[in-house]
TrEMBL record:
Taxonomic source organism: Acinetobacter schindleri NIPH 900
Record-annotated DNA binding HTH domain positions: 34-72
Any Pfam family matching the protein: HTH_8
Protein name: DNA binding HTH domain-containing protein
Domain of life, source organism: Bacteria
Molecular function, one GO term: sequence-specific DNA binding
Amino acid sequence: MGSKSIKKRLITGDKEQLADFVARNPDNARAKLLEQFDDLLIEVCMENYGANQTRLAKILGVNRGSMRKRMKNLGYIQEIQQ
């Protein structure tokens, strides 16, 4: 099950699917869920405000370095290899 599907379930409030997710992740369900929700927040903010890291960081209440790291992990920023 991909992260996109759990994100949709969070939004639609499918409690059975959410319970299934928790059952399959008994040791770290909260952390995984919050991480996926955080990713969704970043995606939504980027759609609405663009990819300016400083602006997104301010909107989401994190520092720019953390924002950059999350964006890189999500594939929005790629390292330039020399």
